[in-house]
Amino acid sequence: MLETWLTTTLGLEVPILGAPMGGRAGGALAGEVSKAGGLGMLGAARYTTPEWIAAEAAVARERGGRVGIGLMTWSLDADDTLLAAAIAERPTLVSLSFGDPAPYVPRVHDAGILVASQVNTLDDLRVADRAGVDVIVAQGGEAGGHTGRIGTLPLLQELLDATDLPVLAAGGIGTGRGLAAVIAAGAQGAVIGTALLASPETVGPDYARTAVVDAGSADTVYTSVFDRARHQPWPERWGGRAIANDFTRDFHGTDVADEQLESGYDPADPRRGVVYAGEAVGLVHEARPAGDVVRRIAEDAERLLSRFA
Ligand SMILES: Cc1cc2nc3c(=O)[nH]c(=O)nc-3n(C[C@H](O)[C@H](O)[C@H](O)COP(=O)(O)O)c2cc1C
């Protein structure tokens, strides 16, 4: 068994967090990740509701016994209703990512809940450290969904040298090789998102799971066109990594107006709807149950690392 700060502090069997993924990670996915020994996290998107959080947390706990909840910090600055809903579920971990978590960390800690924060730069680390978070996630630019621009490995090395807080790695980790690499480097575990996106327990249209199986590692694009088309007011510094399709080929890198993006966008059409996914999409070759994916990654990493034990 791979024992790290993450497993001993959270009482897990494997050092893996199922990534909070807005629109894709609900209670079924999170529950199966937890059942496999990791901690599955609900992705509470800005447009979700307190009722959704309560219902999906219940599903996750029923399946897997424990759950984590991921919120988008910048969206709490306008309306923090979802924070209260998340705290009310007494999750094992709350992640506050994309923005300064300082105004919210004390409320989570007062409820006896640990706080993680995904960061994309060294400056972000300083902000999260000052805010008093318990664990840092180095989220590299190859990650699926919204992320920064620095690659996972350079960022992870930089952050490990700069903090005494436990650090997890996120972005591009889809097999035991990836998990072994970041643990050997000093990470206490990994946050895995894209590798789970073809699993039947994910939420979202069928075409999203098919697209993840079909796409290769060179088929993603880092872009803001989907946010602009869908009126998602993400701060400019965070683009999202998605599978390229006709929509991105038509509009990414152009200066068309948001109205044109909106009229060209169609969530019912795989060629024009968004499928957020990272470069690890090239490692997903079939739709496998999420629990199998998690167990396999952990077993393979343990075998690889045991060569040096
Ligand atoms: C579809 C999708 C949605 C995501 N939504 C969120 C989110 O709501 N909150 C968050 O903190 N991170 C979100 N992320 C980022 C993940 O938490 C995580 O950093 C990422 O999936 C790790 O990289 P990987 O995709 O290469 O495994 C999302 C990622 C994906 C693929």
Total of DSSP H or I helical runs spanning 4+ residues:
14
According to CATH, the fold-level topology is: TIM Barrel
What pattern of helices and strands is seen along the backbone? HEHEHEHHEHEHEEHEHEHEHEHHH
Question: Biggest sheet: strands side by side, in what order?
Answer: 1-2-3-4-5-6-8-9
Distance between the termini: 12 Å
Protein structure class = alpha/beta
Strand content: 15-25%
Which compounds are bound in this model? flavin mononucleotide
Q: Quaternary arrangement of the chains shown?
A: single chain
CATH class: Alpha Beta
Radius of gyration: 18 Å
What is the typical, i.e. mean, pLDDT? 97
How many strand units? Answer: 11
What share of residues is helical?
25-40%
CATH superfamily: Aldolase class I
Unreliable residue stretches: none
Sheet with the most strands? Answer: 8 strands, parallel, barrel
Annotated CATH architecture: Alpha-Beta Barrel
The shape, in one word, is globular
Protein name: Nitronate monooxygenase
Pfam family, one: NMO
GO molecular function: monooxygenase activity
Keywords: Flavoprotein, FMN, Monooxygenase, Oxidoreductase
Provide an overview of this structure.
The chain has one domain: Aldolase class I (TIM Barrel, Alpha-Beta Barrel), CATH 3.20.20. The protein contains 14 helices and eleven strands. The chain has helices spanning 5-10, 27-35, 50-64, 73-76, 81-88, 105-110, 122-131, 152-162, 176-185, 206-214, 225-229, 246-251, 258-264, 290-306; strands at residues 16-18, 39-43, 68-72, 93-97, 114-119, 135-139, 145-147, 167-170, 190-192, 220-223, 239-243. The strands form two sheets. An eight-stranded parallel barrel has the order 1-2-3-4-5-6-8-9, surrounded by six helices. α9 links the parallel β8 (167-170) and β9. α2 packs parallel to α3 (50-64), α3 packs parallel to α5 and α9 crosses α14. The longest helix has 17 residues, at 290-306. The chain is globular and about 55 Å long. The mean pLDDT is 97.
